[in-house]
Design brief:
- This protein has 402 residues and is an alpha/beta fold.
- Helix content is 40%, strand content 20%.
- Strands 7-6-8-9-10-11-12 form a 7-stranded mixed sheet, with helices on both faces. Strands 2-3-4-1-5 form a 5-stranded parallel sheet, sandwiched between helices.
- Helix 1 packs across helix 2 (31-44), helix 6 (164-174) packs across helix 11 (291-297) and helix 9 (233-242) crosses helix 10 (249-261).
- It is globular and about 75 Å long.
């Protein structure tokens, strides 16, 4: 596997320091490998292996630990004869009830450095999380970016990476979930389907005791079918009624929330750019990895939506807060904020004619501020002008700036 510098760089400056390092992300996005990379870094810094403890709650060795009392006992048994600072690495800790109590006790009682992963974006939202409030640093991990995909091809597969357009076609088709990179091409869709089903079963159905899994699947089918489109719980309820299935809006919202918490889908709220007001309905939803769309439907019906999904996740990966912009009842694909920086982005497949160029650039031109405004497309010709910027999609994805 490749070294994932984006995340390691964030962690390395905190090694040995007090904040608890908490890594969250969808199942199979590379969290376990990141923990092992942290172990390697600790070794490189001279830490003895006897002082490092990796506890995976999906391992046969530790999967019987269900609550904080059992975890306390496990940690005491593992570390009681260890001298010097200890390094505790917990993988998929959301499986342990009230895990925060144990982590807080470790922080108080032991000279330790703590690293945690979990497949739940709301890992720290519970009442118990107040025990470690202000004492942690959270890192969101995502599937491979296109830049990481190229890195994998170059370092692991020893592939010639000069033909970026051909590589991008493969990335668009199968996505960036790390495990599928090692699977033969004819098996990739099937393997993505297996990952999808595992996420549903372990992180949504089992975690929330959902009995009617067919309803959950149909709701997610609707979300995936309408990738990057505005819709509401009411739209889904109408769709389900058409399917002769009656379901309340509250249940729909609950199932979507569970899927968000499992880091499987992401919700992008809408913002009135002029009024600086967040709008409370018809949000957009994106998949954590566009490959799941392909695995479900097998072909691309709307390349624009796939590219929009890729850009949205890339912006999150780069640390932006991302909203959908509205100005004069027209939509700006992304309003992106980080620190005091703001950028506006429109995404399209190709600027194929004057009408498309006018559509994509004209709405950006109506935004009356001095922040940068971009159109991203697959075109190689630069259409920048009048203070508005155009960038090639691939160039944007392989660079570390917008």
């Amino acid at each position: 596997m490749i070294k994932r510098e984006l995340y390691l760089n964030q962690i390395e400056r905190l090694i040995g320091k007090e904040p608890i390092k908490i890594i969250t992300g969808v199942r199979r996005s590379g969290k376990t490998y990141l923990l092992k990379s942290i172990q390697e870094e600790l070794k490189n810094r001279g830490v003895n292996e006897e002082n490092m403890f990796l506890i995976s709650f999906e391992s046969m060795k530790y999967n019987k630990i269900e609550n904080f009392k059992q975890l306390d006992e496990c940690i005491i048994n593992l570390t009681e004869n260890t001298k010097g600072k200890i390094y505790l690495l917990f993988d998929e800790i959301q499986n342990v009830e009230n895990w925060e109590k144990s982590i807080n006790a470790c922080r108080v009682d032991l000279d330790c450095d703590i690293y945690i992963t979990g497949s739940n974006s709301e890992l720290l939202s519970g009442e118990m999380a107040t025990l470690i409030s202000g004492r942690y640093y959270k890192i969101n991990i995502y599937p491979f970016s296109f830049a990481e995909f190229i890195q994998y091809k170059k370092e692991i597969e020893k592939t010639d990476t000069k033909d970026l357009e051909e590589l991008f076609k493969e990335y668009v088709e199968y996505g960036g979930m790390p495990p599928i990179q090692q699977v033969a091409q004819q098996d990739k869709y099937s393997y993505l389907g297996d990952i999808y089903n595992t996420i549903l079963l372990k992180d949504i159905v089992t975690r929330h005791n959902i009995r009617n899994t067919d309803i959950l699947n149909r709701i997610l089918d609707y979300v995936i079918m309408n990738l990057g489109k505005n819709f509401s719980a009411g739209n889904i309820a109408k769709y389900m009624k058409h399917e002769r299935r009656k379901i309340s809006k509250d249940t729909i919202l609950d199932y979507i929330l569970y899927s968000k918490n499992a880091c499987f889908i992401h919700q992008a709220p809408r913002e009135d750019i002029k009024g600086k007001k967040v709008l409370q309905h018809n949000e957009k939803y994106f998949l954590v990895d566009h490959g799941f769309y392909q695995a479900k439907y097998g072909e691309i019906e709307n390349m624009g939506s796939i590219l929009e999904n890729i850009v949205y996740i890339e912006l999150l990966r780069r640390g932006y807060d991302v909203k959908i912009g509205m100005i004069n009842k027209k939509e700006i694909d992304f309003v992106c904020t980080k620190d005091k920086e703001k950028i506006y982005i429109q995404v399209t497949y190709q600027l194929e004619n004057d009408k498309t160029i006018e559509r994509e650039f004209s709405e950006l031109a109506k935004i009356n501020d001095n922040f940068d405004k971009y159109v991203l497309s697959m075109d190689k010709l630069d259409f920048s002008g009048n203070g508005l910027k155009h960038r090639n999609m691939i160039d944007f994805l392989i660079s570390d700036y917008i």
